[in-house]
Amino acid sequence: MREPDHTRRVVITGLGIVSPIGNTVGDVWTSLTEGRSGIAQITHWDPTPYAPYVVAGEVKNFDVTQFLDAKQIRRTGPEIHWGVAAAMAALRDSGLEITDANREEVGVVFGSGAGGQGLFIENQMSWKEKGPRAVAPTFIAHGLVDSTSGMIAIESGAVGHNLAVVSACATGTHALGEAAEAIKRGDVTAVIAGSTENPLLEVAHIGFMNMRGLAGPRDGEGPASACRPYDVDRAGFVLGEGAGAFIVEDLASATARGATIYAEVVGYGSSADAHDMIQPIEGGAGSARSIRWALQRGKIDPTEIDLINPHGTSTPVGDEREALAFHASFGPRAAEIPISATKSLTGHLMGAAGAVEAVFTTLSLHHQVIPGTLHTKNVDPACNLNVNLETRSAEIRAAVSNNVGLGGHNGAIVLRRWTGK
Fold first, then answer.
1. Is 188 strand, coil or helix?
2. In the annotation, is 383 catalytic?
3. pLDDT for residue 7 is more than 90
4. pTM of the model
5. Which CATH architecture has domain 10-417?
């Protein structure tokens, strides 16, 4: 525990991911830059009764046995499997070794929008079909929103600051921001941060369908065309699943051990709409507030932002109001800043979206490349944004990763390219 120092610099030294477009950072970057979508017909259950809402971004070719033993696998749900895998991959990537000497200096800030709802549903069904003795005595402990953060601590040995952030679709953004703040407060020198989500439950799919939030594929263009952020004929979002993770670290600690630095976390903003549980507030005022605060906290001039990874879910109202937030935050330049709307490849990972998209943004800064946005053909004039349609190299000094959550939760992270000083 150290004295708070809000001038303390925080950097990203490790990345991990499990996603519809790959389960390693290398595979994910290839998918992003080559436009390989992870959206396809749902296989977890039969989606045909819900046509045309039959597609999603599912995790593929994931081997949980590399990360957890048979007992842990049996007791836990996919959200924990993916979260632990992403976290441990990030830890390996960072080269940070957690030992008896430093374990109190390493924390975990790892969230989820809903946690293990699948375990609750399974045990409810077991009780109804087989009676009380069929209910697993361990399902409550493993089905909570904070279960993943607990499991990551167990697997990594980190005993410092530990909590689970819950703010719907802004969860991952807030987890990364709160991890950086924990380091600046002096609580720890490093944090395993991120979020995970398992939203592809049939009842959840039905709920979003009845909410009129989902979209089906564009006629004749294949499953992935269902998600087309900011397009004039966008119709709704597509669910996705997975987890994203970071090692965020005090700059002094990272440089002392010679760590590779991907990017610097320079600004974080969090705000509420206080308006509606589903629709963002008119004009995108809440999201604009969190972006403005992130820029102010990071002492970043808005003219330094060369990339935005938006929430960009592909809903008619959501995309337009987020675009208005960008115009309120950046003025006339909002129509020029490249927008890389990566949900077009993954679908909407709900509570994991912010972490996964911040991983994408970090990689863009590290490689100085802007991934293209798939299936957006005609940008809605009401949005008036520079949606990047093709992958290209570019100078990116700083970038914003922005997310909006049900309940009016807004989160923005400002990341800066690491140049070695």
1. coil
2. no
3. no
4. 0.96
5. 3-Layer(aba) Sandwich (3.40)
